[in-house]
Structures are given as structure tokens and as C-alpha cells.
From TrEMBL:
It comes from Pollutimonas nitritireducens. PANTHER family: FAD-DEPENDENT OXIDOREDUCTASE 2 FAD BINDING DOMAIN-CONTAINING PROTEIN (PTHR43400:SF7), FUMARATE REDUCTASE (PTHR43400). Residues 3-432 form the FAD-dependent oxidoreductase 2 FAD-binding domain. Its cofactor is FAD. Gene3D superfamilies: FAD/NAD(P)-binding domain, Succinate dehydrogenase/fumarate reductase flavoprotein, catalytic domain. The keyword Amino-acid biosynthesis does not apply. NCBIfam families: CobZ_N-term (TIGR02485), PRK08274.1 (NF006130). GO terms for molecular function: oxidoreductase activity. This is Tricarballylate dehydrogenase. The keyword Oxidoreductase applies. Keywords: FAD, Flavoprotein, Oxidoreductase.
């Protein structure tokens, strides 16, 4: 029998496995995917949002706790557990040394990296390199790993974990950490959550999944339906961004995101603008655009820029439609040319150009047009013009298991003494809605480490756990 069983194989799961093993526990990881697709959504990540009170290695200036908290509060609209959010924020300031010990390398952000040089530490080689480093370290420490091992059933008695089932095999352990991701790849569950809109559409049928196809939510649904575990979150809330409509159904990752929204205008299928493109810096607003698109006809819109924007954003993997005039661009995008020109002419005439600076909240804004554009409003008047068709890209869902600072799963508001949760399966405790760049990895890293330490204590007894640097996070 293993001391600790980890269900899942992404960032949170591996942080839990490493910390449990460092604490002296024997550990088995069950990853549902084949080896070549291991790592869940973490393989598509780039960075970690980090609190710091002074410049640190790859981070410039300072990003103190209160500013981090205000940023999170703004994107969630207050739908967050402040105690757990601040736990994540503080843990983000101290985890990089531990990550480096397990082979993760950091690099300064690229010059066009969404103005996050102050707030986010970038992984050298991206999320895939981070995942590979963690797997190498886990194997070197003696963690056992099984691929192609989806868990579909758990034996839980009176809130206590007994065993998990994978491929018909029963696996017992003294403690368990659930870190198997959300349900974003389960189209049936998404359809059930979103339903039909007033136009008779099923919005989710036009959603693309930015991450892994293996996040079907099987363990999460089992916990809800078979064990009545305490839940938190709205099933329609998710990390959703605007991505290229030509992106693949699964695993498009970061390169399919369209990052020029704030430098131009966005119109829907009726060629009408529907939201302020310049509301705030893109890292603080990019994750609202997936949901905005979900509410538009056919869940489709178009990001329109002119040549002044070229070179000021990370280009997507697919080139946009290109035209020498706005009417030509509208025709190429399949939009009503007259309506498109009415929208663009109205926008252009409303621009009050001041001192343009896409690195600041500048004074270039619109007047007399609805919706307003509050920053970076320049007329689209310099050919060639570019248009990108957009659809909602779902990264991960927010409905999950209710937990507390110990990462324990709760049943009827009572914490389990040997079943813990980390990562996307509990992110809704911190993210009721909205998103800010890099916080998903902060949540997964903080709660993965806490769950790992506490699962080892549950399995071995606190007096037998080898003290580790990660213990402070679980205190």
C-alpha cells in the first residue's frame, strides 16, 4: 500500500507528489493521459504570478501583496475567499527556490510579453519544460508514475479516503490528493451548464478547448454525485479567452490567443462593437473576452487593427485576413460592408487622440460613441488592415471542491482527515469569476504543496514527517 496517492498529473499534482515524497511518504501518481500528453493544462502555461516586495532575479520593481490582492479582487468582482487568496499570494513569493531545486528554470520576459515583467516569472521552455522537470525530479526521488490510468471511482467512507479505481484495479492508500483538473473537455457537462440562449443556440457547441482533452471531470462529478462532497462555484464560470476561430478543438495553447484586441476594435457578426476594448491592460482583461464572445451571435467576433498596431502584440500562430481598405477587409471576413463601415466610421470620428502609449493607461479615448474605448483609441486609418475571427477558448472550469487552508476536501462542512484537493479542482475557491495572467499556476503550486505536505502527515503521522521548506505553506 502506498502512503499517498495522487490523482492527476499536472502542475498541482506534481507539486503535491514532490512535497509528499520529500516529507518521507511513498507516492503513486495516476495520470489519465499517455506519457506524451502528460501534464494536463500545465504543459501550455508560460508563467507564475508572483508577489515580491523588491526586485528579485527575473522580476523587476515590486509587486506587493496588497496590489496583487487588488488585482485579483478587480477581476473576480469580489467572488473570492480572501483568506485562501492571500495564502496563494504569499506562497507565490517563496516558491521559486523550491521550483528551481526541482529543475525549473526561469527567464526574463520577452519584450512583448503583455507588460508582465513586474508581476510574472516566466518558465524557460514554457510549461512543457516545467512539467518535464517535475517528472524527472519525481522519478529521481522514487515517486511511481502510471500513465493511461484514469480514475473513475473512489471508495470514501465517512469522509475518509480508502481506495481509488483505475482500469478496473483497486488501489488503496493511506491518504490521497485529488488534482485531476476541471471538466472543460466534457462537452455534455458544458451543454448542461450553459443550456440554450435566447437565440436558440447552444453556445458551447462553438467553444474551443485551449488545453487538454483529458480533463473530462470524471473524478469531480463522482465526488459531487456519489459522495456529495461540498462544492463551490458556478459551472458556467471558467478561464475563457478570445482565440483564433481556426484553432484546433483541443490543445491549441497560448499561440492561438489573439492579443491585439486593445489596439483596435472588436465587432460581432452584425459588424457592431459590443465592449470597451481599452478598459485596462490586456493581462487584466484578456480573460473576460471569452465570455463576452460566448454571449454574441454564433459566439463569433472579429478583432480589427491597422498597420499602426503591428509589432505591438504577440502575433498569433495564424495570420489574419489582410486588406488594403476597410470595405475589402469586411468582405473578406464575410461581414455586411455597409454596417461595418458605419461602425468603423463612427469609431474613427469619436477618437480623441492624445499621447498614445500602449505600455500605459494613456489618454487616447473616444467620445460620443457606445461602447466607449477608454484607452489606446486611435483611428483605424493606416493600411494595410487586418482582421482575426475569434471564438471562445476555454482553459479550465471553476466549479470545484470546497476547501480550506489545509487543502482538505469537505463533506457536510467537515474536512476529511486524509483526502485533499489542489489545482483546477479547487481553483473556484479563489476564482469565482475572471482571471489575471499567471494566477492559475500560483493556485496550483500553493495548494499542491500544501496538499502534499498534509497528505504525508495524514499518512505517516505528523511526528514522522521529514521537515521540509514547504511546511511553512501548510502551516
Amino acid at each position: 500500500m502506498f502512503d499517498v496517492l495522487i490523482v492527476g498529473g499536472g502542475n498541482a499534482a506534481l507539486c503535491a507528489a514532490l512535497c509528499a515524497r520529500e516529507a518521507g511518504a511513498s507516492v503513486l501518481v495516476l495520470e489519465s493521459s499517455p506519457r506524451e500528453w502528460r501534464g494536463g493544462n500545465s504543459q501550455h502555461t508560460r508563467n507564475l504570478r508572483c508577489m515580491h516586495d523588491a526586485p528579485q532575479d527575473v522580476l523587476i520593481d515590486a509587486y506587493p501583496e496588497e496590489e496583487y490582492w487588488r488585482d485579483l479582487l478587480a477581476v473576480t468582482g469580489g467572488q473570492t475567499n480572501e483568506k485562501l487568496a492571500r495564502l496563494v499570494i504569499r506562497a507565490s513569493s517563496t516558491c521559486r527556490g523550491w521550483m528551481r531545486k526541482h529543475g525549473v528554470h526561469f527567464q526574463p520576459p520577452l519584450s512583448g510579453a503583455l507588460h508582465v515583467a513586474r508581476t510574472n516569472a516566466f518558465f524557460m521552455g514554457g510549461g512543457k519544460a516545467l512539467i518535464n522537470a517535475y517528472y524527472r525530479s519525481a522519478e529521481a526521488l522514487g515517486v511511481q508514475i502510471r500513465y493511461d490510468s484514469p480514475v473513475d471511482k473512489l471508495d470514501i467512507q465517512d469522509g475518509r479516503f480508502i481506495a481509488a479505481y483505475t482500469n478496473g484495479e483497486r488501489i488503496e492508500a493511506r491518504a490521497c490528493v485529488l488534482a485531476a483538473g476541471g471538466f472543460e473537455s466534457n462537452r455534455e457537462w458544458l451543454r448542461e451548464a450553459w443550456g440554450q440562449n435566447e437565440r436558440g443556440e447552444w453556445p458551447v457547441d462553438n467553444f474551443l478547448i485551449r488545453g487538454t482533452r483529458f480533463n473530462q471531470g470524471v473524478v469531480l462529478k463522482h465526488m459531487f454525485e456519489e459522495h456529495q462532497a461540498d462544492k463551490i462555484g458556478d459551472p458556467t464560470q471558467a478561464h475563457m479567452v478570445a482565440i483564433d476561430a481556426r484553432a484546433p478543438l483541443y490543445d491549441g495553447g497560448i499561440c492561438t490567443r489573439i492579443d491585439c484586441v486593445s489596439l483596435g476594435v472588436v465587432v460581432n457578426r452584425q459588424a457592431e462593437r459590443f465592449y470597451d476594448e481599452g478598459e485596462d491592460f490586456w493581462p487584466k482583461r484578456y480573460a473576460i473576452w471569452g465570455r463576452l464572445l460566448a454571449n454574441q451571435p454564433e459566439q463569433t467576433a472579429y478583432s480589427i487593427i491597422d498597420s499602426k498596431a503591428v509589432g505591438r502584440f504577440m502575433p498569433p500562430v495564424f495570420p489574419g485576413e489582410k486588406a488594403d481598405s476597410l470595405p475589402e477587409l469586411a468582405a473578406k471576413l464575410g461581414l455586411d460592408v455597409d454596417m461595418f463601415m458605419q461602425t468603423l466610421n463612427s469609431y474613427n470620428a469619436s477618437c480623441k487622440v492624445g499621447t498614445f502609449d500602449h505600455t500605459k493607461l494613456d489618454d487616447c479615448h473616444t467620445e460620443g460613441v457606445t461602447p466607449a474605448k477608454t484607452h489606446w483609441a486611435l483611428p483605424l486609418d493606416r493600411p494595410p488592415f487586418y482582421g482575426y475571427a475569434l471564438r471562445p477558448g476555454v482553459t479550465f472550469t471553476y466549479q470545484g471542491l470546497l476547501t480550506d487552508e489545509t487543502a482538505a476536501v469537505r463533506f457536510n462542512d467537515q474536512p476529511s482527515n486524509n483526502l485533499f484537493v489542489a489545482g483546477e479542482m479547487m481553483a473556484g475557491n479563489v476564482l469565482g469569476k475572471g482571471y489575471t495572467a499567471g494566477i492559475g499556476m500560483s493556485i496550483g503550486t500553493a495548494f499542491g504543496r500544501i496538499a502534499g505536505v498534509n497528505s504525508a502527515k495524514a499518512a505517516l503521522g505528523a511526528e514522522h514527517v521529514i521537515p521540509q521548506e514547504a511546511d511553512h505553506a501548510a502551516a
